[in-house]
Prior knowledge:
By secondary structure, this protein is mainly α. The protein has four helices and no strands.
Amino acid sequence: MKRIIELSIKGVGLAxxxxxxxxxxxxxxxxxxxxxxxxxxxxxxxGAVIVGLGFSVPGIVYETTDFSYAVKILIHMxxxxxxxxxTGYAVGWFSLAGGIWQCxxxxxxxxxxxxxxxxxxxxxxxxxxxxxxxxxxxxxxxDEVHVTKEA
Length: 151
């Protein structure tokens, strides 16, 4: 449970930060005309929290040995992307009113961002694992030298 809370806090924090950045981009793209009515901003913030949870909580799957790495990625990213698409449509991040092609740029930008973030975290975690393994090898080498000196 502690791990899920940690993942949730990190995921919601990152989602809200990205929400702010995408909001700035939308404001600039609309030349400062960015009007929201009927609690749309509140809905979008809640949507960002839901998406943050939708991407972060399924990350717990990486801590199990029951699935291959490819299945873990599919579960994690598949869940997050589905939650994003449903939530994004519900809160108005994109609309099908202009047709499927008009809503594709924001969808692709968001999904591309999620894949980019996954790659960044994967590379960070891989590097951390390499450092840990290197330190373990160093400690084992020191232990072997110590045992040899005693013998």
